[in-house]
Design goal:
200 residues; alpha+beta; 2 domains; 9-stranded mixed β-sheet; two-stranded antiparallel sheet; globular
């Protein structure tokens, strides 16, 4: 359908992944950045997280991407307190138990250096006597504050969280607060991933 919209957005820190906020003290929402009616985010990024959001008015595609049974990957760069041990990384890979739920296996690796990202406003708290490190963590599920809970469970609290990919869609070439329409090729690949039989 020609009226379907597919948008990638670099959500800033301190912005809700929705278009309205009915709280007593309203916070910034997507409405301040995206002027396309009737689109909704596919999954969420917490208020205090940053990075890639996909927005669409294609309900079937949205369902396929957020339903856990389809296991579509989401990749995050995660700044944590201290330097994670190999055993902690292996625990993340194997799955950790959070409030009675065991997470699915993940891909977890320590990045060799700090990734190239825009400075966060406000910056994270800095303590001279506590080092930090960056992880790349790829999950196939998206429970509430899951990444933060996972790193805390293995002893390395999250300080900054940036989603850099949803399936094959990447954050690169987007500035903070910027959005763009998916290319035809990106959309074709996405449709093939969510429904391999759709292009046969």
């Amino acid at each position: 359908m020609s009226d379907r919209q597919y948008i990638l957005f670099y959500k800033p820190y301190g912005v809700l992944s929705q278009f309205t906020d009915d709280s007593a003290t309203p916070r910034p929402t997507l409405k301040e950045y995206i002027d396309i009616p009737e689109v909704y985010s596919v999954g969420r990024l917490d208020f205090d997280s940053e990075g890639l959001l996909l927005l669409t008015n294609d309900g079937q595609l949205k369902h396929r991407l957020i339903d856990p049974q389809f296991e579509h990957s989401r990749t995050y760069w995660v700044q944590v307190e201290k330097i994670p041990t190999e055993s902690a990384l292996q625990s993340l890979r194997d799955g950790v138990t959070i409030q009675g739920y065991r997470t699915k296996p993940a891909i977890a690796k320590l990045l060799d250096s700090e990734p190239h990202l825009p400075a966060r406003e406000p910056p994270i708290r800095f303590r001279a006597n506590i080092p930090t490190a960056w992880l790349e963590l790829t999950l196939t599920e998206g429970k509430n504050r899951q990444v933060r809970k996972m790193t805390a469970a293995v002893g390395f609290p999250t300080l900054r969280l940036v989603r850099v990919a949803i399936a094959h869609l990447r954050l690169e070439n987007l500035a903070v607060g910027q959005s763009r329409i998916l290319t035809d090729r990106e959309l074709q690949e996405l449709r093939l991933k969510v429904n391999p039989r759709s292009l046969r």
